[in-house]
Amino acid sequence: MIDKWLALLNTLVVEGGRESHCTAADIQLFETHAGVKPPLGFGDYCQIFGSGEFNNCNRIWSPMSVSGKFDLRVRWPDDLSNLRQTAQHNAEMMAKRAWMGAS
Known about the structure:
- 56% of the residues lie in helices and 6% in strands.
- The chain has helices spanning 2-9, 24-34, 42-49, 72-102; strands at 52-54, 58-60.
- Helix 1 runs parallel beside helix 3.
C-alpha cells in the first residue's frame, strides 16, 4: 500500500516540504505507548504524507519523530480517554434500553 501512497504524493503540489517526519519506528512506538493499533494503511500513509492540513481545513495527525503541531503523540492520551468514555456511556445506554424494553 505504501507504493500507492507514494504514487499519489508524486501527483500533488506540496507546500512546506515533502519530509513526513514519521517513520515505521514512530508508528510502532505510538502503538506500544497508546496500546492502540491504527487502522490498516494508516501507518503507511503517515510515513509518506506525515502530518499536516489540506485547504486549511482537514487536519491529519500522525506520530512524528520530531515535535510538531500535528504530532499524534501529543493528542492521543486525551482522545483515547474520550473515546473510551464515549464507548462506556454508549454501552450503559444500550444496557439501560434493553432493561427498560424487557420490563
